[in-house]
Specification:
mainly alpha, about 70% helix
């Protein structure tokens, strides 16, 4: 019987599929770290108080990239080149979601609207990250090889999501409510499409590595399409709602150190 747990266990048990999974994850997290670091450096003067939280967000993402690389190293594996069709972060940027990398490479300060766009994009993508890591934590929190990493990253993603809610509500109260809702909706609808395409690509690459039969691959693809159909109809709405989080100031203070994987 196919389940999320059995599927990931199969990927975990094979060195080549595990290496691809960790390489994709490490690349995306490291890219997120760079983006947040640049945004923190370019925050407009009126929002300089937000810079430490953005920098903390970037430090967490960079830490996650190091964790996934450490998990590979522990097993004696080297990262592989990430297939372009599985590069979630770069595909989002290519389709105009979030802030363009060309803008982040420049030294011109960002505008307040740029910060709103960044936070709306993060609120959508961190929803996805939080849900994915929550699923892994549910099934693998006690796993001897990846359990500690899963719990740490999951906690960080929950903090990132809380921070996005809190900051977007602050901007909404300052008169940016309509722009926030418009940007959230556009980001969510684009993200669910890109997530579907990336999921199909990742499963295709995993299927070739693990030798999945055509019927099994077809069942997995159908499941991905079914999730997209639900998200396109109504599920995207969970990505655009805003609620003050129970934990305020979730990104105050320095990032926690990554666990050792000796």
């Amino acid at each position: 019987m196919l389940s999320a747990k059995s599927l990931f266990q199969e990927i975990l048990d094979n060195d080549e599929s595990y290496r691809l999974f960790c390489s994709i994850a490490a690349s995306g997290e490291s890219q997120g770290g760079w983006e947040n670091a640049r945004i923190a450096a370019l925050v407009p003067a009126s929002e300089r108080g937000l810079a430490p939280r953005i920098a903390r967000h970037g430090a967490d993402e960079d830490k996650h990239g190091r964790i996934f690389n450490a998990l590979m190293k522990k097993r004696g594996l080297e990262p592989v080149e990430v297939p372009p069709d599985t590069d979630y972060t770069m595909l989002l940027e290519r389709y105009g979601i979030g802030l363009a990398h060309e803008k982040l490479k420049d030294d011109q300060p960002l505008t307040v609207q740029d910060i709103v766009t960044y936070l709306a994009h993060s609120r959508v993508t961190e929803q996805r990250a939080s849900e994915q890591m929550d699923l892994l934590r549910k099934h693998f929190a006690d796993h001897p090889e990846i359990g500690r990493a899963v719990k740490m990253i999951s906690g960080d993603e929950d903090n990132h999501l809380a921070y996005c809610h809190e900051e977007l509500l602050r901007f909404a109260s300052g008169g940016h409510g309509r722009a926030i809702q418009r940007t959230l909706r556009a980001c969510a609808l684009a993200e669910i499409r890109i997530y579907r395409d990336v999921s199909l690509a990742v499963m295709a690459h995993m299927g070739r590595i693990l030798g999945w039969s055509r019927p099994r691959a077809a069942v997995l693809a159908a499941g991905i399409h079914a999730v997209y159909a639900y998200e396109r109809a109504a599920g995207w709405r969970r990505m655009v709602s805003l609620k003050m989080p129970e934990r305020r100031g979730a990104l105050d203070g320095p990032a926690a150190a990554a666990p050792e994987f000796a």
